[in-house]
Amino acid sequence: xxxxxxxxxxxxxxxxxxxxxxxxxxxxxxxxxxxxxxxxxxxxxxxxxxxxxxxxxxxxxxxxxxxxxxxxxxxxxxxxxxxxxxxxxxxxxxxxxxxxxxxxxxxxxxxxxxxxxxxxxxxxxxxxxxxxxxxxxxxxxxxxxxxxxxxxxxxxxxxxxxxxxxxxxxxxxxxxxxxxxxxxxxxxxxxxxxxxxxxxxxxxxxxxxxxxxxxxxxxxxxxxxxxxxxxxxxxxxxxxxxxxxxxxxxxxxxxxxxxxxxxxxxxxxxxxxxxxxxxxxxxxxxxxxxxxxxxxxxxxxxxxxxxxxxxxxxxxxxxxxxxxxxxxxxxxxxxxxxxxxxxxxxxxxxxxxxxxxxxxxxxxxxxxxxxxxxxxxxxxxxxxxxxxxxxxxxxxxxxxxxxxxxxxxxxxxxxxxxxxxxxxxxxxxxxxxxxxxxxxxxxxxxxxxxxxxxxxxxxxxxxxxxxxxxxxxxxxxxxxxxxxxxxxxxxxxxxxxxxxxxxxxxxxxxxxxxxxxxxxxxxxxxxxxxxxxxxxxxxxxxxxxxxxxxxxxxxxxxxxxxxxxxxxxxxxxxxxxxxxxxxxxxxxxxxxxxxxxxxxxxxxxxxxxxxxxxxxxxxxxxxxxxxxxxx
Length: 631
What we know:
Layout: H1 13-21, E1 30-34, E2 40-42, E3 46-49, E4 55-61, E5 66-70, E6 75-80, E7 83-88, E8 95-97, E9 99-102, E10 105-109, E11 167-170, E12 178-179, E13 192-198, E14 207-208, E15 213-214, E16 220-227, E17 234-238, E18 243-248, E19 254-256, E20 260-261, E21 264-269, E22 274-275, E23 281-283, E24 290-291, E25 296-297, E26 303-307, E27 318-319, E28 325-329, H2 343-353, E29 359-363, H3 366-369, H4 374-380, E30 385-388, H5 397-404, E31 413-416, H6 423-426, H7 437-441, H8 459-470, H9 525-529, H10 534-550, E32 553-556, E33 561-562, H11 572-585, E34 598-599, E35 604-605, E36 607-611, H12 613-628
Parallel strand pairs: 1-8, 10-16, 18-21, 19-23, 21-24, 22-25, 23-26, 25-27, 26-28, 29-30, 29-31, 31-32, 33-34
Antiparallel strand pairs: 1-3, 2-4, 4-7, 5-9, 6-7, 10-11, 12-15, 13-14, 13-16, 17-18, 20-21, 35-36
Helix pairs in contact: 4-12
């Protein structure tokens, strides 16, 4: 999935000579090595493998040091009690890789729950191995072997750390915020389920789930556990190695499903198993794989905590119309880290950093990502910080602005430039949760907890599709920095985005005149919005509601478009009519006119609404002028 960073890989001369003469044979062994460096020592600096095999290294770390990355992008870094295990996946050629290490660390504390736990048959497990995507195979039935838990823990095992002392882990990485560790690797206690971490030992601080991003200034994280509901309130059905819940007959307001029954992992919830009007808060166990249609019917459920091991489900699995808040914990390795989707999380990181300052938020799809140079805007308006939140146009703006709004303050400005080839999404008609938005959230599922799900539909359908798409993919790492990969997944040694979120990769002008890649678009009112005013009035209603709720100002501007990518019908007079119509129905200030968005082909880059570097500089100059008239 990743291309190798040639600048960070050193090839011995003998290897280079071999490369120049003959291709490598799959039957001949190759040498793979790891460079020595400060803060660590490699026990086995070189290993000999067949091409395509994994190369495994054992690394001893000095105190306070942690491995945070590797120049070979397809890697897996695991922290163990003995040190660090580095696995280079499917190596085809002889290489020597370099490591990134850091002395940035944080203490995680077991924060042992009270010993007066309810009776439970749940075993105590150190569970030190993260679930592997390859073992999480599809299963239409909970009884099939494919659905069984790998490496079933022993009921006789004791907690991971007998002395219950804090453990030091790395909080380093390329992102502005750190990733909380996967607690299932560290602490498990009989009768309890760890739902995440807290910034204070008495649990009065901020809650942080597994894999969520958090402020690096936090000095320690403390385990946050909830007691499992008395197992006698559940009915179970067992197979040889697993079991499922088939019934519940309690009246609990806070319901926590058990991880085990008779030392067998609970991996499924049967149809009609959890039906209750009393349940307000529900915690699902981390080993749960499946919820059947109608498995959870809780009309008054407000908050759900679950883990991304859950994969077999649908929108009918959860019949919980009052569900507002979701806490999704990551116990699987990410699949979209380092892709352009992950830039959303990095942009949110910056938004969180400047949330107490006055802000100009540039917002739309990828045309915004390619369309501005924020430092020039910040220089023109020094009282404001600037963040470019453009990622992708084809999922609804509502779900993105739900999250963005939680970081805004009164007086902030949003510049919205909707892309007209995505009217349904960009004009707020689409209120269904889009599965692709999970690609953006995977780098820190904590942003989901900022959304009120009652404002959106199809959450579980979207999550199910997301789980299907990432099933079987190569597990990546949170240490991959999306700002070093372009849309085609090519690696760059230096970041190709700035801290504001602008695409800064040099983009040459197009050397021809005409349509580049997108279908011709009709810029007439009728073609875009139909015969009624419903589309535009829906967007205006959203604008007014959002401004009132957050105390912000929204400005409308047009997304850039290759003038040669319009239909013959979309002449000047038709575009003028469209502009007049929008100004009449959208009760927000306009920045520039529709003709200002019509760019010659030479100012576009590879797509008919992605600006070249010169085009983005030109558009930024326009925007600064327009903003100077209204700020």
